UniProtKB/TrEMBL annotation, chain A:
Domain of life (superkingdom): Archaea
InterPro entries, per database record: ArnR1-like_HTH, WH-like_DNA-bd_sf, WH_DNA-bd_sf
Species annotation: Methanoculleus chikugoensis
Name by which UniProt lists this protein: ArnR1-like winged helix-turn-helix domain-containing protein
Occurrences of domain ArnR1-like winged helix-turn-helix (ranges): 4-68
Signal peptide: none
Automatic annotation (TrEMBL), chain B:
Domain of life: Archaea
UniProt KW keywords: Membrane, Transmembrane, Transmembrane helix
Residue spans crossing the bilayer: 16-39, 51-73, 121-144, 164-186
Name of the featured protein: Uncharacterized protein
Length: 91, 216
């Protein structure tokens, strides 16, 4: 997903993608980030305990923890709530 | 909650898609209309200066045609940019069929918000360009339909070419109406999505709290 996104939207994207172990390259490609910002986002999520680093052979993969579920569920409900009201744009 | 959110999101995307398609069609019509008048005026200009024929070109018509052609090109390019993003979202939504998982719906909503953020200024410009395009095509229709115009102390007199006036008037009226309707729908769409961006900003405090950013 590209385009102008908020940090919260990027966190959500990373956490949802990392439900299964993912490589750093896979994450930055999927979330359309450059490696510098990708590292910053991942470092933050690892520090807060939303993602853990898993060693697979000589590779490091990132996996979302159970705590991530709380954030992703809240995020989804807030965004879907935008469409709770009757359609506001209609022809 | 998910079902109704999905139905509403789908409906909004479909309606906005129709508005952008209508915009592309009418932008192309305004551009073509402007170019055809420019070509006609260029021929008149050539005949006025290079042959013995007494043909006069109209600088006013030429100017309006030029503005219409340029507005049409700008209108077309901006419409296409907005259209591409909406089309991709609409195609992905349709590709999922009737059953759209929560996560996929949230992703599409995020994509639409992101697309709107990227094109916010463009959509605002489009509201103005649509209005200008409509006004230009209407003026062009009136100017081309006039066969003779004279302003004197006694008043204003003009004659119109009956063969030209009906198709021109119908075309220009149609384009003007569609432009104004587009402008209206674009402003409504922009207002709705601006409100949504505000709502998202308000709920960011909760997300921030959940992510424990304050305790960082």
């Amino acid at each position: 997903m590209s385009g102008r996104r908020t940090a919260f939207e990027i966190y959500w994207e990373i956490l949802v993608f990392c439900r299964t172990p993912q490589s750093f390259t896979g994450i930055i490609n999927r979330c359309d980030l450059n490696s510098k910002t990708g590292q910053e986002y991942l470092r933050f999520l690892v520090e807060k305990g939303y993602i853990v680093e898993v060693a697979e052979g000589d590779k490091t993969r990132y996996l979302a923890t159970e705590r991530a579920g709380e954030y992703t569920a809240l995020f989804s409900s807030l965004y879907r709530k935008l469409f709770d009201a009757p359609p506001r744009f209609k022809l | 909650m998910h079902e109704s959110a999905l139905v509403r999101f789908r409906s909004e995307i479909r309606h906005f898609y129709i508005v952008t398609v209508a915009n592309i069609i009418f932008a192309a019509v305004v551009m073509a209309f402007g170019i055809s008048v420019i070509v006609g005026e260029a021929v008149s200009m050539y005949e006025t200066f290079s042959t013995a024929l007494y043909v006069l070109y109209s600088p006013v018509v030429l100017f309006i045609a030029l503005v219409a052609a340029l507005t049409g090109i700008r209108w077309l390019l901006t419409s296409v940019r907005v259209f591409e993003g909406v089309e991709a979202i609409k195609d992905d939504l349709n590709g999922m069929g009737g059953e759209v998982p929560d996560e996929a719906l949230t992703r599409l909503i995020v994509r639409m918000l992101s697309h709107y953020r990227d094109n916010r200024a463009t959509i605002r410009t489009m509201i103005l360009v649509c209005t200008l395009g409509g006004v230009c095509s209407f003026l062009l229709g009136v100017a081309v339909s006039l066969e003779h115009l004279s302003i004197s102390a006694d008043g204003i007199s003009f004659t119109i070419n009956n063969y030209l006036v009906i198709p021109f008037m119908l075309l220009t009226l149609g384009v003007a109406l569609v432009s104004l309707a587009s402008s209206y729908y674009f402003s409504r769409f922009a207002n709705v999505w601006d409100e949504r961006l505000d709502e998202i900003e308000e709920s960011e405090a909760l997300l921030k709290e959940t992510l424990e950013m304050d305790r960082r």
